[in-house]
Amino acid sequence: MTEAYIVDAVRTPVGRRGGALAGMHSADLGAHAIRALVDRTGVDPGAVDDVIFGCCDTIGSQAGDLARTAWLVAGLPDHVPGVTVDRQCGSSQQAVHFAAQGVLSGTADLIVAGGVQNMSAIPISAAMLVGQQYGFSTPFAESPGWLKRYGDQEVSQFRSAEMIAEHWNISRADMEAYAYESHQRAIAAIDGGRFAAEIAPVDGFDTDEGPRRDTSLEKMAGLQPVAGGERITAAVASQISDASAAVLIASPRAVEEHGLTPRARIHHISVRGADPVWMLTGPIPATRHALERTGMTIDDFDLFEVNEAFASVVLAWAKETGADLARTNVNGGGIALGHPIGATGARLMTTMLHELERRGGRFALQTMCEGGGQANVTIIERL
């Protein structure tokens, strides 16, 4: 069987809501990462078989098959197609999976995978809000089949995060301590220049805007809980953000023909589902499934990237899997760096690849919770 290699991965800085990237058209934001990837690798863009990009809330500047539009906006050949993927928060991680599957199947040799989201311009759940004018209050509520199976109970990420905290006995103080550490790790990474190699600056903007240098446990403790719960506050949740990221996936044949140097091998890809009402627990069974399929143990990994949708998600995952939090999100996560939903999967992959190389490690695992109670798992091996 052939291999699927990661040749390179690059991202924009992550802009906070209303920040440096807020006014950038989503197609131009996506194009920036794509163009940087092509320039860095020196690959012939005409040889690319497909562009697979993740994006959610595909209305307005994100409508009309954004993957295709971003490629064209980047000034690249119009014979190269593009397709946009929506697996909610895992959209661009799934884009990497689809790219790897295309290469592993032998039907493609070079694929640009990634994602983009401008949450400042198109607010989270904007597509659902637009649907209300057509008589759909939520994606589920008017479905007799859904109501028969799950009833009319609230389905929301905030409720899920609160349920997880209660079920796994994770206190508000536990989550705030974790969130504070996320900010400190991100600040240390920025100050240490660890992100410099993975970021393609946008008009001079080259630094992630999310980390809060003035945050403290005292400030976090003073925030009010959200959505009627008791433990979840804005401080322990990911930030609304704007960004894009792109990854070049190649076959051994493409590597040889185009003189490319692969940096990592895709060792494993899978995705699993869990209870959609609990929504955010998917990384737990997905990680177990990946370990079973590969025969690996949780101790075989040098790094983990587990998306910080909420602190309770990562802490529950660590409790269930036995993963070492000292090796998890070592440069901070979504709580500090932000969660531009359609781009986050590829952003995590980009950061994970660079950090794995920096540490001289071998294996790293990425997973993230996704709407519908799903979770992708990607395992990469540094070459």
Automatic annotation (TrEMBL):
Residues 261-382 form the Thiolase C-terminal domain. It comes from the Bacteria. Keywords: Acyltransferase, Transferase. Pfam families: Thiolase_C, Thiolase_N. One of its GO terms (molecular function) is acyltransferase activity, transferring groups other than amino-acyl groups. Residues 5-251 form the Thiolase N-terminal domain. The keyword Repeat does not apply. Gene3D superfamilies: 3.40.47.10. InterPro entries: Thiolase, Thiolase-like, Thiolase_C, Thiolase_CS, Thiolase_N. The active site is at C89, H339, C369. Belongs to the thiolase-like superfamily. Thiolase family. This is Acetyl-CoA C-acetyltransferase. It comes from Saccharopolyspora shandongensis.
